[in-house]
Each structure stands twice: as structure tokens, then as C-alpha cells.
Amino acid sequence: MIRFDDVTVTYDGAAAPVLSHVDLHVPEGELVLVVGRTGSGKSTLLRCVNGLVPHFTGGTLRGRVTVAGRDTRTHPPRELADVVGVVPQDPLSGFVTDLVEDELAYGMESIGLAPDVMRRRVEETLDLLGLADLRHRPLLSLSGGQRQRVAIGAVLTTHPQVLVLDEPTSALDPGAAEEVLAALQRLVHDLGVTVLLAEHRLERVVQYADRVVVVPGAGEPLVVGTPAEVMAHAPVAPPVVELGRLAGWSPLPLSVRDARRAAGPLRERLEPLAHDAALRARSSMHVVDGEPAVVVEDAVVRHGGVVALRGATVAADRGEIVAVMGRNGAGKSTLLGSLVGLHTPSSGSATVCGVPASGLRGRDLVSRVGLVPQEPTDLLVADRVADELASADRDAGAAPGSSRTILDSLAPGIHDDIHPRDLSEGQRLALALAVVLASDPPVLLLDEPTRGLDYAAKKRLVATLRRLAEQGRCVVLATHDVELAAEVATRVVVLADGEVVADGPATEVVVGSPMFAPQVSKVLAPQPWLTVAEVAAALAAS
Amino acid sequence: MSSVKHGLGASAVPRWLHPLAWWAWALGLAVVVSRTTNPLLIGLVVAVAGWVVARRRPDAPWARSYAVFLKLGLVVIAIRVAFTVVLGSGFGSTVLVTLPSLPLPGWAAGVSLGGPVTAEELLLAVYQGMVLAALLACVGAANSLASPARLLASVPAALYEVGVAVVVAMTFAPQLVQDVGRVRTARRLRGRPDTGLKALAGSVMPVLEGALERAVDLAAAMDSRGYGRVGPMSTALRRTSGGLLLLGMLGICAGVYALVDSGTPGGIALPLLATGVAAATVGVLLSGRRSIRTRYRPDPWALPEWIVAGTGVLAAAVAIAVSATDPAALVGQVSPPAWPQLPLLPAAAVLLAALPGVVAPLPPGMMSTRGTAPAAGRRAPEEVAA
To answer: What is the pLDDT of residues A222-234, one digit of tens each?
Structure first.
């Protein structure tokens, strides 16, 4: 269905090709997962499929890409719209109309289908993706998962044989991600659509894939294989795979279900260790005594007519890492925002280091609390890394070079002259962190820090956060990433509809929760294990 | 065309009323406003438009702009009055208050700062401000009743691409506002001032960069979805349509020049202009045949559309007729100040224009019979909140 013959892509002005001599054949009805670091050429590979590379992006493509027998050399993207559906990373950026139903019809209007055909296909697609209740809704009022499903539906109506998706679940909470993946699963199984999917969060998708393509980057050849083959040798893999490697299971499990069936003996071995381990893992907390660094008390925050927080009470001490979880729209970002004074509670209070956050400005603010927003780039304003760091020193009133030192400790080797937009996601996050930490705030807030991070970058982030907490900082992070929460959080707060529904040690809150339990916990439940590292340490000690 | 499907009022099947019908209705009311300075009549128009908006406004982002238009109207009135108070016009005799006046240099003769403020000039300023505010209210009503995207979807095929560009531009404006908010937040998080001129200057570049990036994303998405696919077209037809368009444009330019330039013989301007417009229209229609686009569920033009558009046109016609026959009835008297009288005939026509509030079908997703406007539709996504 998709065939790459000796494809080499070089962008204009680039010294080396992004992809070199790629040969790949994807047969009909396969779900292929494309993995690779940010900047490895993953997106380029995806965009080659419908001719966006090179027709839209420029650059030179040597070799040949054919889709359903059509050569992308002679067919620009618009002439492939009826065979390839492309779902962009941020669905909102690709919407052309303003209502769900119109958006579904847009592609069909463009290729000139008859009105009765359009009508029928819109209804079919609404049913297929469970969108029937949303048909008259404005696109802007939809939740993240709904938007993603509409974006998929909008390209499906032209009956493409190939579907290309770029990180469809990275911005979604676990529930919404399940929704989207279930829809994809149905397309592959029932309609025989060929799916090419890029995703960083392997733990969510690897079990659905028929084959995995690893794009190593720097022009290295692709690695192609079944998920089990690829995962067996991958340097970083989802927790369930790592647990399988640790326990020596064969075949290597890819889903929680497979792992659970193999885990009986391991559970027995771990049974006597479980109690101690849970205690030991949590005793490494460095809670600093004294008044809590962050207190939100009975806070009510409204955005227009919408109540984002309705009487939430949360406190955190120095030395703690608190993960705030909950579905999209539960009030996580608002909670963080109220702690830097972006939102003023209409009743109740939000204080940092004993001072109400709403009145803080300028240096008073940055010396107490730092927030890394969902898009770290928002914080970055300069054209060069060096200028960015210098201005951060000035803003904080710190000695010149102090933020450079911090950056080097977080992510060594970031060159002075690079434009912040050209950094990888992980490096950009490190730069934003360095900017925020320049003024040495005792409270650090992070909003969805792992969005777009690969496993290696995530590992570095985990180490960084632990170190910051050990230095006596209070770290609060809002996240959908259950694995991250399991890895670093000493405490988990679950928000729902603006209220705190659970608040306690990670082991208590997360274990047994179908939505927020990490994979290891799902495999080894009811024992309170959260991460592979914990299991490994316990086994080594016994 | 069954009567239930395209029927009248809240009992009919909910559907979008043809956007052109709403615009015809609103522009009709705007014509009434532009013909009068009678505050009672203007007030009546605003009340009627507001009532219809309240009854038939869908629960959609574009519909929320109505309040903005009303507030803008109040600002216009305030500015108009403030200018009168400060600059004065020296008209009228009922002095209410005398402000300290500022002598101006000779070159500014005819402009005076301060001085006496009269009831007449104040009243005139209020009435004239009300006209502008009411015009804004009419445009705002149309804007919130009819989706701009649906309006542009009903333009002819050849102009379709222009329409898309306009729709995209319109969706960009609210996103730009969001971006400005995000950048301001980021400035504040870095401990920099987030208000004032300097902050504004500092946020221009990031906002433009964001807008540009989104534009590129959208262009890629539209290209991937078949935007701009064209069918085959014979060379002869393409040349004909191109030539006609070129000729038409030249004709229009020359015609406009002839109209403006007094030296050109008078008889030539209008025919030239008309020929130009005709040639351009035929050219546009011909090149539209190349487009292979089809329309999904086009809005029908049925009885409710006739009634909605008709009431607007009727109100406008009555106002024009009355202004020709009895101009005094439409003027709000300011000198000497007097309590205005409501002119009966125009008022009746305007009241009739409230009919759409009853006969227009409800927009989809708003079932007033069950009383459940979808509350979920108002839920702001967390990104917006952040």
C-alpha cells in the first residue's frame, strides 16, 4: 500500500539528509508504529506519504514514494486526498470550518463527491467514531479527545486507504487516549485501513501495532520488526516490557494483559517483600519541616461562567513532589495558575511561602515560585540560547552565567548560538527550567512536562525533579502521564470537576485506580509496586 | 419541500436559517436606523434586534460576540458626547454648564476647546451616537445569528477560495487574542511587566511567530485534504474567462475614473462601468465551472427565509418611503429640545421585524421546547483557561 524505494530527503540549506536510502513497504491493513527521537526524521517520514514532503515543505526527495500505486512525484498532496488521510499533531490547527458536521464534510466537498454520498458518509463516520451526539457542536467547544476523533473522522470521510497520524494521543488524558486508540483499532480491524502512527508514549500504543519502525535519526538506516522483536532490543521501552525483561519472560509481553498472565510466579516471589519495599521507597522523601511551601485553601476560581476550581484544598511542603492528576478540564492548570497569581480565587486562598499569590509581580513572584507552562516555548523570547540565559539572569537579578550553570547541569552541551525553536523538546524543557530556576524559587510548578518527550528525555527529567526536591524545593506537577507520576511523585492529588477527590501517597492513590495506575502496578496488583526500578531493587536485595 | 422540515417557528425541525436571510433582515434594520435620528425609533430597532438574538442565537463561539458589539456601541456614544463637550459646536442656546475655555493659536481657528455646553448640542451628540451604536447592534445581531463560515459557503464557486481565506482570517482573530494572553502570561511568569507599552512591544514578535506557524500548519492540513483541487478545463475556456476578467477589471477602472473625473463627458462613465462589471461577472462564472467542489447540505431558501428577509426589507422600504414623504417624523427634535414622538408607520414596520424571533426555526443543538441548551458546549477547554 505504501512503498518507499531508496528514499533520501534533504531539506534546503541542510548539510545532511534527514532520511537516507529508506526502503519500506507497508502492506494493506497494517498498523505500523513509527518511533524515534524528536528531530530524528519521524515527521518527515510521515509527511512523505502524502507528498507534503517535498511539495509543501520544499527540499529534495530522491527515490520514489508510492501510495496505492500513485507516485507522490506526480501527485501533490491535494491529488492524494482521496487515498491518504493525514491527521496533524494539533487537531485544532487543521480545522477549516467551525462545526463538527461541516468539518467532516469539508474533505468530500473538496474532491467533489455527490451530495447524497456525502450525506451518507457523514452519518457513517459519526457512528463509527461515536460522534453522533456532537454533530452540531462548534469545534472549539470540544474536549481534546473529541477533537482528535473529529480530526480522524474529517479525513476518513473521503474513504482513504491510508491514515497517517502524528502523535495522536500525546496531549490527551489516559481516558481520551483510550477512546482514540479504540477508534483506530476499529478502523484497522473492520475496514482494513492501513495506519501509520507516530507516538512517543509507547506504553499506550505498542500493543496495537503490527510492526514497529524505528527512525534512529542522523541518516541511519531504519529498524523494522514486530513489536516484540524491536522492544527486545530497544534501549528504552515501556514499563511492561522492562518488567518482562527483568523477570525474563518469553515471549516478551507488550500489554498489561499478557504480562499479568505471565506474572504469577513473580508476584509470589515479591509477596514477602512488598510491605518493606513500599515503606523503603517512600522513606527516601526529604520533607523539610516548617510551614508548607504551597497552600491552596477552599479556592473557588471562575473563568467567565465556568467554575474551574470549586473549593479545592491542597498543600505541599518543601522537599515534596506532588503530582496533580485528573482528566482534561478538571482544573489542573487552573490550580497551578492560581499559585502564580494568574487566577485570583473568588473565595478561599492560594498562598506561596505564606504570601497570597495573586498580588505577586516581578521579582517578588519569580523569587518565590516558578511555573513552566505546557508549551515551554512560551517562556522563551530570545533568538539565541545565550541571550535567553542572559535575560533570565537579568530578570532574576542573579549573577551573570548562573542560569548557564543550571542549564549545563540539566542538559549539558546546548550550544549558545542555537535558536530555542531548533532545540529538541527535552532540551527546550531544560532551557525553560533553567530560565525559571535562575531566580532560585523554593516552589517549582510544571504543567504537563512530558508532552512530546521521548523515554530518554523523560528519564533525565525524572532525575532532575528528584534532585530539585532533594535540594529542598517543593515541586508540583500537573500531568496525564501516569508513569511519570509513579516514578517521581511522593504524593498524588486527583482533581475532578474542580474538586480534590483523592490526596495521599502515590502508592495509595494510584494502585487500584483503573485510570491512573501505572503499568507495573496493574501487572502486580494488589501489591503496591509502582515502577520497574522498585521491583528490581527489591529483587536484588532479597 | 415538506412543511414540517422547512416549517415555521420553534415546532419546526431545528436547522440553520440561511445566513443571507439573517443578513438581509439585519441590514434592513440598519437602513431604518440610518434614516432616522429619532431616539424612540432607534431604541425600538435595538430592542427588536436584541429580542430576536436572544430567541434564536445558537450556542456557538461566534454568537458570543453580540455583547461586544453592544458595549462597543456604548463606547461610541460616550466618545461622541465627550467630543461635543470638549470641542463644542456653539450651536443651541440652552447653556447647561460653561467649561473653562482654552485659547487656541490662529491656525486652529474654528476649533474651540471648552466653553459653553448646550443642551441642544448634547442631545444631538447623543442621538447621532445612538445611530452609530444601533448600526453596530444590527451588524452584531447578524454576526451572532448567522455563522460567518456558512455565509461564505454560499458564495459562488469561483469566489469560494476567497471565501475560505476570509473564514481562516476570521478564525485567526480570536486565536490571536488567545496568543496575546499566553504571551502576557509568560512575561509575567518571568517577572517582567505584563502591562504597558513596553510589554506590548515585547509580545508582538512571539504572537506573530505563533500566528505564522499556525498558518503554515493550516495550509498543510488544507492541502492534504484536497483544497484547491481543480477539474479539467479546456484551453479555450480558460483563455476566454481570463480575458473577460481582465477586460472587466479594465472597464471598471476606466468607468470609475470617468465618474470621478469631471472633465470626461458625462454619458460615458456609467455604460463603461456597467460593461466592466458584466464582463467580470461572466468571467468569474466561467472560471467557477472549473471548480469541482460540491456542497454538503446547502441551506435551503424556504418560507422562513422569505419571511425573515422580507420583514427586514419591508422595514427598510417603509423607512425610506417615510423619509421621502414626511422627513420630520424621523428626526429627533433637538432645537428646542422636545420629547420625541414615535412615528407610527415606521414603528409598526420595525415591530413586524420582530417576527423572525417567532417564525425562524431554532438553530440545531438548541431545543427551547425541552429547555436544555447544551451546557457542555460552554465548557471552556483547559488550554484556554491556562
So the answer is: 899 999 888 888 7
Q: Give A90's DSSP letter.
A: S
Distance from CA of A381 to the nearest CA of B (A): 7
Interface test with A, best of B143, B166, B209, B224 (most A CBs within 10 A): B224
3-state secondary structure string across chain B: CCCCCCCCCCCCCCCCCCHHHHHHHHHHHHHHHHCCCCHHHHHHHHHHHHHHHHHHCCCCHHHHHHHHHHHHHHHHHHHHHHHHHHHCCCCCCCEEEEEEEECCCHHHCCCCEEEEEEHHHHHHHHHHHHHHHHHHHHHHHHHHHCCHHHHHHCCCHHHHHHHHHHHHHHHHHHHHHHHHHHHHHHHHHCCCCCCCHHHHHHHHHHHHHHHHHHHHHHHHHHHHCCCCCECCCCHHHHHHHHHHHHHHHHHHHHHHHHHHCCCCCHHHHHHHHHHHHHHHHHHHHHHHCCECCCCCCCCCCCHHHHHHHHHHHHHHHHHHHHHHHCHHHHCCCCCCCCCCCCCHHHHHHHHHCCCHHHHCCCCCCCECCCCECCHHHHCCCHHHHC
Supply the DSSP string of A429-465, one letter for each residue. HHHHHHHHHTT--SEEEEESTTTT--HHHHHHHHHHH
**Beta-ladder partners of A295:** A315, A351
Say how far apart CA B34 and CA B368 lie, in whole Å.
34
pLDDT averaged over chain B?
81
CB nearest A366 (choices: B190, B295, B382): B190
Contact between A486 and A510 (Cβ < 8 Å): yes
Residue type, B109: A
Q: Closest to B229 (Cβ–Cβ): which among A52, A79, A305?
A: A79
Residues within 8 A of A (CB atoms), B 230-249 only: 231
Q: How many CB atoms lie within 10 A of CB B99?
A: 13
Residue B170 has pLDDT above 70, yes or no: no
Q: Give the nearest partner residue to B191 out of A97, A362, A375, using CB atoms.
A: A362
- Is residue B300 a contact partner of residue B12, using CB atoms and an 8 Å limit? no
Residues facing A413 on adjacent strands? none
| Contact flag A155-B225 (C-beta cutoff 8 Å) | yes
Sign, Cα dihedral of B55, B58, B60, B63: negative
Query: Which of A432, A496, A439 shows the shortest CA–CA distance to A464?
Result: A432
Dist. CA A281–CA A266, nearest whole Å = 19
Residue B379 has pLDDT above 50, yes or no: no
- Return d(Cα B212, Cα B179) in angstroms, integer: 12
**Chain B from 84 to 143: CB within 8 A of any A CB:** none
Distance between CA atoms of residues A162 and A147, nearest Å: 20
Q: What are phi and psi of B104, to 5 degrees?
A: -110, 150
pLDDT at residue number B370: 36
CB A12 within 8 A of CB A59: yes
Q: Which of B167, B190, B222 sits opposite A395 (nearest CB)?
A: B190
User: For residue A406, what are the contacts with CB-CB under 8 A and spacing of at least 6?
Assistant: A433, A434, A437, A438
Which pTM was predicted?
Answer: 0.78
Instruction: Flag whether residue B386 sits within 8 Å of chain A, measured between CB atoms.
Output: yes
The residues that bridge with A492 in the sheet, in sequence order, are A323, A504
The more confident residue out of A197 and A290 is A197
B84-132 residue pLDDT tens: 888 876 677 788 888 887 777 766 666 677 778 888 888 989 999 999 9
Q: Which chain A residue shows the shortest CA-CA distance from B363? A: A136
A54-91 per-position pLDDT tens digit: 888 888 999 999 999 999 999 989 889 889 999 988 88
User: Distance between CA atoms of B130 and A22, rounded to whole angstroms?
Assistant: 69
